Amino acid sequence: xxxxxxxxxxxxxxxxxxxxxxxxxxxxxxxxxxxxxxxxxxxxxxxxxxxxxxxxxxxxxxxxxxxxxxxxxxxxxxxxxxxxxxxxxxxxxxxxxxxxxxxxxxxxxxxxxxxxxxxxxxxxxxxxxxxxxxxxxxxxxxxxxxxxxxxxxxxxxxxxxxx
Length: 163
Known about the structure:
Oligomer: single chain
Strand content: 35-45%
CATH superfamily: Acid Proteases
Order of helices and strands: HHEEEEHEEEEHEE
Distance between the termini: 68 Å
CATH architecture: Beta Barrel
């Protein structure tokens, strides 16, 4: 009896990976959905003086970043990016953005990121920021950034210490 060819079973997520064109690792790590509070209307936020260094041109820009304990994702304002001439990179899969009340953000989906080196006091790190319309804010750093470094935030005095 002739042997039957082996046909492996592939899960839907594995089929998606095969069907999708190859994407760099940094693009695969981007979330499918983000949320942000661009109005600074709650008490669990602090404004931080941040310096960003572009990775392609080494330009330095000062920016006031909203450290928002309820945001999911690290954002930079599209008008700030255009005004400063910061280079962006397109992403192949747009990211959905929601407001804190779960309604879709009027700025629409994220289709670009910026690659920067962020400096706060003595701390420095390379990171990707998603580009979106943030209204009054130039930058938003999220809960994940806060948690990732186990920052000590004094919400009363608005002081942040890096551990």
